[in-house]
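ARCHIVE CARD
Drawer: 12
Card no.: 0347
Subject: one protein chain, sequence and derived structure
Cross-reference: see card 0346
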Amino acid sequence: QVQLVESGGGLVQAGGSLRLSCAASGRTFSTSAIAMGWFRQAPGKEREFVASISWSAATTYYADSVKGRFTISRDNAKNTVYLQMNSLNPEDTAVYYCAADPRPRVTRTPDYWGQGTQVTVSS
C-alpha cells in the first residue's frame, strides 16, 4: 500500500511558477520499482495525464501541453516526487493529483492516488 500527500498548490499569476510536491509513505519507495506521475483535472473536464517518471528517474514523459514548461523529478531518499511548473497560464488551472504505479511506467489508471492540490492561474 502506498499513501500519497500532495502540497505546493496555490494561486499564481500567469507567467509565474509553482512547485508541487508529493510525499509517499507505506511501501518502500525506491526499491519497489514504483513509477510516479502527475495528473490534473480542470472543472468540467476529464482527468488528464501531465507527467510521469520511472522509479530510477531515468525516464520521464510529458503531455504535449506542458512540455518545455513543466519538469518532473523525484528524490527516493525523501520518498518525494516533484513537479516544477513554469510559465503557467490560465489553462493550467486544475486540481493536480499525484499518482503511483508499481510498474515501470505510470498507466492511465494508476494503483494509487493522492487527494489532490488546487492550482489556480490568474490572467
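Annotation on reverse: The chain has no helices and eleven strands. The mean pLDDT is 93.
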